[in-house]
Amino acid sequence: MSHAHILVIDDDPAVRDILQETLAQEGYSVSLAVDGATGLQLAKDQPVQIALTDYQLPDIDGLDIIDRLARLDAKIIPIMMTGFGTIQTAVRAMKAGAFDFITKPFDPDTVAVVVRKAVEFHRLRQENHLLRKAVREQYQLEQLVGTSEPMRQVLDFVRKVADSDSTVMIQGESGTGKELVARMLHFNSLRKDRPLVPVNCGAIPETLLESELFGHEKGAFTGATHTRMGRFEVANGGTIFLDEIGEMSLPLQVKLLRVLQEREFERVGGNRTIHVDVRIVAATNQDLEKLVEEKRFRQDLFYRLNVIPIVIPPLRERRSDIPLLIDHFLARFNRSKQTNVTGLEPETLRLLTDYDWPGNIRELENMVERLVVLKKQGVLAASDLPEKIYRKPAAAPELKEQFIRFSEDGINLSREVEQYEHQLIVEALRKANGVTTRAAQLLHLNRTTLVEKLKRKGVDPKSHAEGLPN
Ranges for the Response regulatory domain (predicted)? Predict the structure, then answer.
């Protein structure tokens, strides 16, 4: 508090003297101005946190002072003083942006309390601004680590749809970074200064989820001792992230469908319709289309949620990103744990890259943290790894002679891999008689991942069923 700079604008010398003495005793630095023009010049010449201004000045109206201070520096907090303390005057001052209103003659202790509150408000507002800035920087698109083709596609897609208000469905295995993508969508959108409210639909009991989402009225059920806002109301103007959406019960899916269609709902136990302006981002590690076929997920809700689908590939399908991710996590944990693990031996990196990472990025992150904590400094050796990684290292696939097409100028690896992948997918579709779910099982892929690959390659699964032309 003692570092705050207070500007006092008043044409009465007695008032200026009292305020200077009172505020100096509180530990503030104080600048005095006899009129509005002098006060505005002082505010231009040096940083000011709080400004106490008289309502009636010889040159400029106090309301105009507040307006000009706001245009000069929106962070300055104005407090209005006046000897004509009417309700109308107070209302006009507060509408103009005054933090508080002090009537003359005033008690110096009262002024000290008001200024103390204003300084605290200024501090909290600055902290909030810095925190929001830090969060936005943390979730810049560049923080999505990876240079592989699958991740470049995800990044390009996120960049294209971030500033849209369309509903997004993020699909991917557990640990692939679905929440990170949701946060990037929010903090790179026009809603970035409004709330991002996450809801884990799989972690909240079904009996409580409706109340969590839509709120409840006092007395709506046993234990509802007061009215409570739901997550949709809290997210108004911002984004709500519905994680594990596939776990939601059918009755609740009906109510969610209405919110998607109308952007309105009623609290549990209430009859007042509440309208909200929110963007909905959902995520799942399940095959929702399969759940729809099994009648466990509403088809109409699926289509409402799946307006813009984003499929995040598992880590085993983007192995070239593993070294980058390891470097990223090493740097982070070295900073946070004050260690100095400087890198990895080549064999260590090979083992980590060959491992399939069933827990995806989350498992890799936890592994790097464990290694950093145990190693503390130096280079990570293969002997530092847990047994599950080095016990059965994945063998490099044997190259079949017919797929090796080296010429004097070499080969285009990306094109060769793409063609080989295309052949494998077509063969899987033939064996599965054009059924994508079965083909995905044969390829050990999620169905959604295979569907995305088919779309990208322009492959019609039915055209590769047995007995049908190609």
Answer: 5-119
* Domain 141-313 in CATH 3.30.565.10: no
The answer to whether residues 305 and 296 touch, using CB atoms and an 8 Å cutoff, is no
Could you tell me the pTM of the whole model? 0.60
| Helical ranges in 248-359 per DSSP H | 250-262, 288-293, 299-305, 322-337, 346-354
Which position has the token pair 């776990």? Answer: 247
Q: What is the pLDDT of residues 244-267, one digit of tens each?
A: 999 999 999 999 999 999 999 999
Residue 281, exposed/middle/buried by CB under 10 A (0-12, 13-18, 19+)?
buried
Burial of 440 (C-beta count, 10 Å sphere; 0-12/13-18/19+)? buried
- Residue 266 forms beta bridges with which residues? 273
Give the residue among 167, 171, 202 at the shortest CA–CA distance from 185. 167
Superfamily of chain region 401-464: Homeodomain-like (1.10.10.60)
Residue 143 to residue 163: CA distance in whole angstroms: 18
CATH class of 316-390: mainly alpha
> What is the arithmetic mean of pLDDT over 159-176?
91
Helix (H, G, I), strand (E, B) or coil at 200: strand
Pairing of the two strands 168-171 and 308-311: parallel
Rounded CA separation 318/150 (Å)? 7
| Structure tokens that stand for 339 in this block | 């260690």
User: Could you give the C-alpha distances from 392 to 29, 51, 315, 351, 388, in angstroms and in order?
Assistant: 69, 70, 18, 9, 7
